[in-house]
Specification:
- The protein is mainly alpha-helical and about 475 residues long.
- Helices cover about 60% and strands about 5% of the residues.
- The strands form 3 sheets. Strands 1-2 form a two-stranded antiparallel ribbon. It has a two-stranded parallel ribbon with strand order 3-4. The protein has a two-stranded antiparallel sheet with strand order 5-6.
- α4 packs across α5.
- Bound molecules: arginine.
Length: about 475
C-alpha cells in the first residue's frame, strides 16, 4: 500500500523521496550553489514562464494551472527584483529555491512546473540566457570604447611619435595610426562575440535530464518565446555542452589581453621617462607614503585583471576535459569563473573608456622622441635604393653612417652633404628634405600604412564600420 506523501518540512529537498536520512551538513554546504547561482534568478524565471506557457499550449497543463503558475512566477520575479526573496541555502540552488517558493505561494499545482524538465536542461538554458545578455552588454561597451579611440585618433591626426619594435624606436608613426591599431583589436573582439552569440543562442530546454521527455512538448514554441533561432539537436549534448561558455571566456580573455596591452602602454607612456601622456587627477591614484606620486592604477589594473579572466577560461576547460556524457555535477563549477570574467571584462572596459576619454596626450614629448633614435635610417636606405643601389648594400652603408653619427652624438641630417657623400656619392641636396620626420611619415602611403592620406582613409573606414553594425 502506498503511503500518503509526507508534508514537506521547510528546506526539505524536492528530491527527498528516495532518501531515508537527512543530508550531512558538510555535504549540504559543499554542494550548495545558491549563494552564487541566485544571480541566474531572472533568467530562471524567464525560462520557466516560457516553459509553463508551452506546457499549457501542448495540453500538459490546463489553462487554469498555467495561469496559477505564471502568476506565482511573476510574484516571485517581483520579490527577486525588490531583494525580498527568502533565499534558503538548504534548497541547494536557484532552481529549487524558486520552485519551492512557487509551491509555497500557489500550492501543489506549483509542482507541475517541472513537468518535462530537469535542472540539467534548465541550468543550461539559464546560462545561455545570461550569457546572451552579457554578450550584448560587452559588445555595446566595446563599441563605446572604439568610439573614444576614434575620437582621440581624429583629434591627433598630425601628431608624430616613434613607432617601436622590441620597444626600441623604429620608424615614426602618427598617433592616430597607433590609436587605430587598438580600434582594430577591439573590432575583432566585437566580431568574435557576435560569432559566439550564434552558438550561445541555441535552446537546450526539452532535453530533460539527458534523454528527452515522454511528454508531447514543443521546444520550437519555447524557442520562439525566448528568441532562440535554433534548438539543440541532441539531448545528451544539450545538457553536457558548455562550449558556448568556454568560447565566451576565450572571447573575454582576448578582450582583456587587448586591454592589458593598452594598459601596459599607458603605464609606460605616463612615466617621466616617456611622458607621452598626462593623467588628469580624477583618473589617477596617489601613494599612501610618497606624497609626490600620481599612479596610473587604472591602466595597471586593466593589465592585472587579465589574469583572472584567463584563469576562468583555463578553469572551465579543465572542468570539462574529463567529463563523460552527459550532465555531471562538475558543471556547477562553470558559474563563478564565468560571472567573475563577465564582470571583470565589463568593469575594465568602462574604466579604460573613462581613462582614454580624459587622458591628455603630450604631442611635444612625442615629437621630440621621434626626432632622436635615427627613425629615418630606413628612409636613408630607401633613398639610396630608389637611386638603384641594391637595398642590401644601402642598408649596410646607412648602418655605417648611423654608427658614425652615434659616435658623434648627432642625427643623420646634422651631417653636411660633403660628409654624407663620403659614404655615398648618391646623396644629393634633396636628402635633407627627404629625411625630415614628417616626410618619412608622409611617404608611407601604402594601404594600412601610417601616411596621412592612408590614415585619413582608415579613419573614415573605421567610422563607417562602427556605424554599420548598430
Ligand atoms: N546547480 C546545478 C548546476 O549548476 C543545477 C543542476 C543540478 N542537477 C542535478 N541533477 N544535480 O549545474
Amino acid at each position: 500500500m502506498s503511503q500518503p506523501p509526507r508534508p514537506r518540512r521547510k528546506g526539505a529537498k524536492p528530491w527527498a523521496g528516495r532518501f531515508r536520512e537527512r543530508i550531512h551538513p558538510a555535504v549540504e554546504r559543499f554542494t550548495a550553489s545558491v549563494h552564487f547561482d541566485r544571480r541566474l534568478a531572472p533568467y530562471d524565471i524567464q525560462g520557466s514562464l516560457a516553459h509553463a506557457r508551452m506546457l499549457a499550449k501542448c495540453g500538459v497543463l490546463t489553462r487554469r494551472e498555467a495561469e496559477a503558475i505564471l502568476g506565482g512566477l511573476r510574484a516571485i520575479q517581483r520579490e527577486v527584483e525588490r531583494g525580498t526573496f527568502p533565499w534558503d541555502p538548504a534548497l541547494e540552488d536557484v532552481h529549487m529555491n524558486i520552485e519551492a517558493r512557487l509551491v509555497r505561494k500557489i500550492g501543489p499545482v506549483g509542482g507541475k512546473l517541472h513537468t518535462a524538465r530537469s535542472r540539467n536542461d534548465q541550468v543550461a538554458l539559464d546560462l545561455r540566457l545570461y550569457l546572451r545578455e552579457q554578450i550584448q552588454v560587452l559588445r555595446r561597451q566595446l563599441r563605446d570604447f572604439q568610439d573614444v579611440l576614434l575620437t582621440a585618433a581624429r583629434a591627433h591626426q598630425e601628431v608624430i611619435l616613434p613607432g617601436y619594435t622590441h620597444l626600441q624606436r623604429a620608424q615614426p608613426v602618427l598617433l592616430a595610426h597607433h590609436l587605430l591599431a587598438y580600434f582594430e583589436m577591439f573590432q575583432r573582439d566585437r566580431e568574435r562575440l557576435a560569432g559566439c552569440l550564434e552558438r550561445v543562442n541555441v535552446l537546450p530546454l526539452g532535453a530533460g535530464a539527458l534523454a528527452g521527455t515522454t511528454f508531447p512538448i514543443d521546444p520550437h514554441f519555447v524557442a520562439e518565446l525566448l528568441g532562440f533561432p535554433r534548438i539543440a539537436a541532441n539531448s545528451l549534448d544539450a545538457v553536457a555542452d558548455r562550449d558556448f561558455a568556454a568560447e565566451f571566456l576565450a572571447c573575454a580573455a582576448l578582450v582583456m589581453m587587448h586591454c592589458s596591452r593598452l594598459g601596459e602602454e599607458l603605464v609606460l607612456w605616463a612615466s617621466a621617462e616617456f611622458g607621452f601622456v598626462a593623467l588628469p587627477d580624477a583618473l589617477a591614484t596617489g601613494s599612501s607614503m610618497m606624497p609626490q606620486k600620481k599612479n596610473p592604477d587604472v591602466a595597471e589594473l586593466a593589465r592585472g585583471k587579465a589574469g583572472r579572466v584567463y584563469g576562468a577560461l583555463v578553469g572551465l576547460l579543465t572542468v570539462l576535459k574529463g567529463l563523460p556524457m552527459s550532465y555531471n555535477r562538475d558543471l556547477q563549477e562553470d558559474k563563478e569563473g564565468l560571472f567573475d570574467a563577465a564582470d571583470t571584462t565589463q568593469t575594465t572596459l568602462v574604466a579604460l573608456t573613462a581613462l582614454l576619454t580624459g587622458i591628455r596626450f603630450q604631442p611635444d614629448r612625442m615629437r621630440a622622441a621621434a626626432a632622436g633614435g635615427y627613425l629615418n635610417a630606413t628612409d636613408a636606405a630607401d633613398y639610396l635604393a630608389a637611386k638603384r643601389l641594391p637595398f642590401r648594400q644601402a642598408h649596410e652603408l646607412v648602418g655605417r653612417l648611423v654608427r658614425h653619427c652615434v659616435d658623434r652624438g648627432c642625427p643623420i641630417e646634422a651631417l653636411t652633404l660633403e660628409e654624407l657623400r663620403e659614404f655615398s656619392p648618391l646623396f644629393d641636396r634633396d636628402v635633407f628634405e627627404y629625411l625630415a620626420v614628417e616626410a618619412c611619415v608622409a611617404r608611407r602611403a601604402s594601404p594600412g600604412g601610417t601616411g596621412p592620406a592612408a590614415v585619413r582613409r582608415a579613419l573614415q573606414d573605421a567610422a563607417r564600420r562602427l556605424k554599420a553594425e548598430w
